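User: Run a structure prediction on this.
Assistant: Running it now.
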Amino acid sequence: MDPRITGPRFKHPQENKIVLENVELSDSLVIQCNASNIHGYVFADFYLKVSAGPPNITTAPENETEAAEGQQVELSCENKGNPKPRLTWYKDNVEITGGEHFRILPNGSLLIKQVVLPDAGLYKCKAENIYNVTEANGTLIVRRKTRIEHFPEDLTVYALTEAQFTCSGSTDPEKISDLKIFWQKDGRPITFYDQRMTTYAGSLVIWEPIVRDSGTYTCIVTNGLENQTASASLLVQDRPEPPTNVRWIFCNKNATILWMPGSYNYAPIKYYVLQYNTSFNPDQWTFGLKV
């Protein structure tokens, strides 16, 4: 026998009768009856279609939802029933009538745009139709927004000196123990495998920086609930790289010297010094020209 018709809601008051109590929408099924005697048996079947039923909240709001000021929050209240339930939301037992700040979505969930501290409270969704009423509750906790108090500033330093970015932040008193500061360089987390880079009290220190340390450094202040970011650039200046592809062109008594400039390493080149030697004194270089 199908286990769906042997449960406690199925009653057999008479041999030729079956009763299903507290019908639900999911009870739609085919039921078959068998009558038999010594001469044989016959079957008869019928389809039970449950087309109406009380409301049921399938996805209720979380017991507690935590958000920071300015975030968007969605409180769930997905439901079903036939006729389609009428859905009403309440905050602290006061009906929410809508508007730009609150919006009830087609699936029944409540969308709160850019939450503010007064949005905190007890939220209740109520689904009702002609058969019944059902409710579900959830609490919204709104935390103060995390803020950056001290922003890192753009730096230009000489190679092998020191570069230091300072960053600090504040957050909701209840989340202060979760406040952390992370750093990125050019959008990638700094792992501190390079021992020249260290952090102290939120500051990032780069010891003996080199040209390749130049880039954009981003401070990320987070409490695990939300984060704020601020960026600053670092330029590490160093002596220029030597010219390449040096060549000369002889023309009578004059010679034209050509070369390709090397990398200037973020410090503008002021001038070039040309020196020469002769076959008579190959180890002696003589100043020729500054250009």
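The mean pLDDT is 90.
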